[in-house]
Amino acid sequence: MPAVVARHDIARIDGLIRPHIRQTPVIEVNARDAGVTAARLVLKLELLQHSGSFKPRGAFANLLTHAIPAAGVVAASGGNHGAAVAFAANRLGIPATIFVPTTTPQPKQDRISSYGARLQLSGDCYADALDASRRWAADAGAFEVHAYDQVETLLGQGTVGLEFEQQAPDLDTLLVAVGGGGLIGGIAAWYAGRVTLIGVEPEAAPTLANALRAGHPVDAPAGGIAADSLGPRRVGDLMFPLAQAYVARVVLLSDEAIVGAQQHLWERLRLRAEPGGAAAFAALLSRAYQPAPDERVGVVVCGGNTN
User: Fold this and answer.
1) Beta-strand relationship, 40-45 and 26-29
2) Using the 8-state DSSP alphabet, how is residue 174 labeled?
3) CATH code where residue 27 lies
4) Is the pTM above the cut of 0.85?
5) Long-range pairs, 286-289, Cβ under 8 A, ≥24
6) Residue 247 DSSP one-character state
7) Contact, 204 vs 233, CB < 8 A?
8) Helix boundaries (H) for 54-125
9) What is the pLDDT of residues 140-176, one digit of tens each?
10) Which domain holds residue 195?
């Protein structure tokens, strides 16, 4: 197993952040009622996490394991990571400055501001916001909390896997949406091949699919309806060896399939997922991933920051 992110470290971080995060519920769903083919379907509802996504796990992992300077913390984000860092900083009494591109949806901008962070709009995409945040951090002396390519971020996101296994220990397959790869990388480190791990990406942002094809992280398009959460320019260097080792395959989805999954989750289950949060479920609904008749399938519904 790649040594940077290990199971025992995920377990240690889980104990550290546990007082600050929610253990999000899982629900077992009748697959026929949900309109998908699977013998058993279990959803992990990370959209019910503080700030509306799984991201506070990595945010608290960073803030609780580093000496934070007086200038506080800085993060670049498409929205969810920024909200999580702002939330964690607010809880811990730390100043936070969050850079987002102008394309970040207004509900996510509003959520960041609601936690008392200083919000800065910069550029048209996540990469622009990241460049601006790093320039600001160098001048101000703030601590950078990276959205996905940071050890503590991966360890924190890996606690989703730890928790899911405790709640649903007999899964065969787990579907996880991929942006920069922090979530699937952390989950891959936790399970370490003990489930079949499927990455799910928009066709308009195939970051991991392209990286696996090339044998290393490469720039990819960063478009589509889920670009604010699943559209960085490339996957992280730290997660990539984990993906090579433990991600069985990546499936790609159209924007139409993702929107259809959002609507389906609301109409059938009354779950209000954002596009990125609905993507993993969309792989089942669209038949981009077709389980075997007796397969037990888990899906991470990873975000709900939408209006």
Assistant:
1) antiparallel
2) E
3) 3.40.50.1100
4) yes
5) 286/253, 286/254, 286/257, 286/260, 286/261, 287/37, 288/200, 288/251, 288/252, 288/253, 288/257, 289/175, 289/198, 289/200, 289/251
6) E
7) no
8) 56-63, 80-92, 106-114
9) 999 999 999 999 999 999 999 999 999 999 999 999 9
10) 7-54+150-301
